[in-house]
Amino acid sequence: MIKSMTGFGKSVCELPAKRITIEIKSLNSKQLDINTRIPNLYREKELSMRNIISQTLQRGKVDVTFYVESMIPDKIPQVNEEVISAYHNQLKSVADKLNIGDSTDYLRIIMPLPDTMKTMPAELEEEEWKAVSSSLSEAFEQLDNFRIQEGNSMQTDVRERCGNIATLLEQITPFETQRTEKIKNRIKENLSDFSNNGADDNRFEQELIYYLEKLDISEEKVRLKNHINYFYETMEEDGPVGKKLGFITQEMGREINTLGSKANDSDIQHIVVKMKDDLEKIKEQILNIL
User: Fold this and answer.
1) Which domain of life is it from (predicted)?
2) Which end of the chain is less packed: N or C, by CB atoms within 10 Å?
3) C-beta separation of 125 from 74 below 8 A
4) How far is CA 104 from CA 25, 60, 86, in A?
5) DSSP structural state of residue 29
């Protein structure tokens, strides 16, 4: 079954104090390229997220983005009691030495000083991550469904174009008989130009056989037909088949090019041009197949 590398998935995770929107999109790429934009709170889970992505999506340029709407900030400022106590002890000691009364407002003096407030990062609770992970799986499922739908459309198009090439291949057969007669007549005319007494029949047959063997395209036709059948079989395989289909189209291209170079006939060459056009469109589609 063919899947596209292009897809989009979205899910929303509702938590008591925050709302997290998860978006995942993927584009075509030769390898798996993962880019994540997630809050620091979930960074400790990034490795497990990447493992899930690599197992689920396998290929493509993947962007994972978290949008967080929270009523409580991830980093909450707290009073640094140890630092304030140390400042207070020092200031009180200086005040005692200078005989300053106890009416001094030490807190007003201390709080603007450095490090009196500390910011503690919020810790990720396991229950919260379970909810987020569930939403993440939902987004992956949506993206995978998108890929399947896109893949079905691509498979229909690619199968149709492969069928076009197979049909064009059959259209070559009638022109092969005509081509043989054309070659035979051309050789006879060329020989007659160089000999006023007519051509030797044995020599003529030898030359004709040589050119027909040199220009014979039966093997290329058989191989191309086999490649087309193998292409159909590969499309029905489970798992990623994009790279494999790409290799098969390369072999199809070689046979079509050889058909064109050995054709020596304008009608066959016109058919070959149409084959190349369909093959190029197949290659364009395969670039986006998983």
Assistant:
1) Bacteria
2) N
3) no
4) 61, 66, 16
5) -
- The angle at the Cα of 209, spanning 208 to 212, to the nearest 5 degrees, equals 85
| Residue at token pair 């035979």 | 184
Count H helices and E strands in the chain, helices first: 8, 6
Q: Which CATH number fits domain 7-73+126-147: 3.30.1050, 1.10.286, 3.10.260, 3.30.230?
A: 3.30.230
Q: pTM above 0.85?
A: no
Distance between CA 203 and CA 8 in Å, rounded? Answer: 69
Q: Alpha-carbon distance 135 to 42, whole Å? A: 14
Q: Output the six-digit token pair for 163.
A: 């069928």
d(CA 242, CA 59): 10
Least Cα distance to 31 among 65, 5, 64, 3 occurs for 5
Other beta carbons within 10 angstroms of residue 246's beta carbon come to: 15
What b/e string do you get for 201-221 counting C-beta neighbours within 10 Å, with b at 16 or more? Answer: eeeeeebeeebeeebebeebb
Which residue has tokens 């046979």? 255
Q: Tens of pLDDT along 184-208? A: 677 667 666 655 555 566 666 666 6
The letter for the amino acid at 147 is: R
Q: DSSP per residue over 222-252, as a string?
A: HHHHHHHHHHHHHHTSSS--HHHHHHHHHHH
Task: Output the pLDDT for position 203.
Answer: 63
Half-sphere exposure of 182 (CA within 13 A, CB side): 11
Domain locations along the chain: 7-73+126-147, 75-121, 149-286
